[in-house]
Amino acid sequence: MREILLYTGCTTPVRLPAYEAATIAVLEKLGVKAREMTDVTCCGAQYIESISPTAFAAMSGRILAVAEKEGLDILAICGACSGSLKITKHELDHDKQLRDEINDILADEGLKYTGKVRVRHLLQVLAEDIGYETIERAIVKPYTGLKVSAHYGCHVTRPFDIVQVDDPENPTILDRLAEIAGAEAVDYAGKTRCCGGPMLAMDESLATKIGQEKVNNIADVGADVILTACEFCDIQLTQVQFDDNFDASRRIPVMPITQFLGPALGIDEERLGFSLNRIDPQEVLAALQGGQA
Predict the structure, then answer these.
(1) What are the phi and psi torsion angles at 279 (to 5°)?
(2) Residues 254, 234: contact at Cβ < 8 Å?
(3) Tens digits of residue pLDDT in 227-269
(4) Which backbone phi and psi does 107 adopt, to 5 degrees?
(5) Is residue 219 within a helix (H) or strand (E), and if so which, with residue range?
């Protein structure tokens, strides 16, 4: 079984642990062991990045160096973490002065970044490393009559020159995975727009409106579930549906892609953390051929 180091970041373990659990279970089913990284910190995304570029490069650079020491690639399941690690790797690979500066800092811990490690977002691992055909062969309980809308997230696909995940203007990986699992992928207005999550610290009201507009656009096309590939986006698109100004009758379950694929792969429901979902996914699970897993 292939092995990869799972970097969960700060938010997933405490606010969306079902995403982490489902990812480990699904990858295991598909022949990849995701071993959680230990002795690593925050990647420094956004907040540290805006204050000190050097501190940001040192924080993400340390994670890259720890993985190099282990001799394994990194799997990032958060869009912001994936973006931070890939951007830092790009800078360290192309700026010798910065690499030397960061390696001087890392030397205190006996670490060194040399450029060997790869950073893979979950969508890359599913679509490229495992492959659509392998996933399709593993489906044992496909969904039937289920409409799915995908939200890709800004940091997962942009900037493409660095992150190299899908087409940022017309992404398709989530849609193809949903269809492999038997669902119908449906497009909607503003599919590649932000969920509003990054605005929360500056203007919560505006962030909520952005997220609600996306959910309403998805509701307008009749989707039964929203699929995500980033815990920040998942949490944001869920919580905006509990705002006082949102019509509760239009609520739609939000699920990370691995949690959605899990039952179709025959993985036991208890391993996928459905009891932690804030919006009940039972109607989604009822669409599984032959009933729930």
Answers:
(1) -105, 120
(2) yes
(3) 999 999 999 999 999 999 999 999 999 999 999 999 999 999 9
(4) -60, -25
(5) helix 204-220
What DSSP designation does 128 have?
A: I
Which sign, positive or negative, has the C-alpha torsion 264, 269, 272, 275? positive
Torsion of CA 94, 52, 106, 44, to 10 degrees: -90
Amino acid found at 163? V
DSSP for 156-221 reads: HH-SHHHH--S-SSS--HHHHHHHHTTPEE---TTTTS--SGGGTTT-HHHHHHHHHHHHHHHHHT
pLDDT digit string (tens) for 177-198? 999 999 999 999 999 999 999 8
- Residue type present at position 53: P
Rounded Cα gap, residues 289 and 182, in angstroms: 9
Find tokens 């039952």 and name the residue.
263
Peptide bond into 159 cis (omega under 30): yes
Note whether 178 and 229 are within 8 A (CB).
no
User: Rounded to whole angstroms, how far apart are CA atoms 32 and 126?
Assistant: 10
pLDDT of residue 116: 96
Whether 5 and 240 have beta carbons less than 8 Å apart is answered as no
Structure tokens at 177: 């995975």
Residue 271 is classified by DSSP as: G
